Amino acid sequence: MVKDKLMFMIGIFGLVLLFGMAIYSSFQFDAPYDSHLTQKQYNDVVLEQNVQLVFYKKTCPYCRAAKNAVIKAASKSDYPTFYINIQTKEGQKLVHQYDVNKAATVVSIRKGVIKSYLYAKKNNKGDFTANKQAIKEAFRE
């Protein structure tokens, strides 16, 4: 009984190993450059894309005050929204790439045109609040 189970497990392991080797050998490691994504495809896919990038910082009072309004607007948008934590290494790269100066920023990209909006502000009482007009503009079509 134990021997049968052991043989079964060895058989499964062998099949998985063979399957993995078949997939590995099917990749072309010397593929020419022209079969990869090109600069034109990058421009078509990335720069001409319609997206929103919502920058935030977990400890930012502006970000926290407008979080629900931004999430609601993003959920109604036809375009994808990416949330970028500026306290991460990857987030810092995008902060520099899009010249973001404040954590509570939405970068809207429409057909390659990039615009930035501050999605939160202080009202005249000194309270942090959502900047509804900026959010509306940032998430419009």
From TrEMBL:
Residue intervals of the Thioredoxin domain: 36-117
Residues passing through the membrane, by range: 6-27
Keyword Transmembrane (UniProt): yes
PROSITE patterns per the UniProt record, alphabetical: GLUTAREDOXIN_1 (PS00195)
Coiled-coil blocks: none
Keywords from the UniProt entry: Membrane, Transmembrane, Transmembrane helix
Keyword check for Transmembrane: yes
A Pfam family per the record: Thioredoxin
Protein name per its UniProtKB record: Thioredoxin domain-containing protein
